[in-house]
Design brief:
The protein contains four helices and six strands, in the order H-H-E-E-E-E-E-E-H-H. It is α+β, with helices and mostly antiparallel strands. It is elongated and about 95 Å long.
Length: about 150
Amino acid sequence: MFHRIRRRAAEPSEAQRRFFELSARLQDQVPPGIGGPPAEPERSEPATAVDDFLPPELRVPSHDQLDGRMMPWSQPLVLDGELVTCTECGAYRDWLILSTHGEIWLRCRAGHQQQETRLDTAWYNRSAGPADATHATFEDCLRHLGH
């Protein structure tokens, strides 16, 4: 058995012989620089550092720099097949949805707030669009959103 394996290794097959012949003929047709050592890069003056950050007026604070986020929700909110209504006045549309410290709160037009435990921050992130403004106080944000 070992004798047969050694004999095969010593004698190249017909396909191997054709491959070696073809590669020998094509050796002169390889363009210069292919297969050789890579060329050394040219030494040039170091480029000046470019500040690629947005200008301060276009930067937005990260989530950990905000106390919370809010978005308007004008249509009725249906959770688990149930229409959500304000526990104090019965309003069922025109909500402000607040996301703060991992909790979701609903605020009706009359100013009543209630925590909504069936919603989470992941739902808020999927449903909220991009922020159009940041505000220093909660009241400023309410004014901005028309509440």
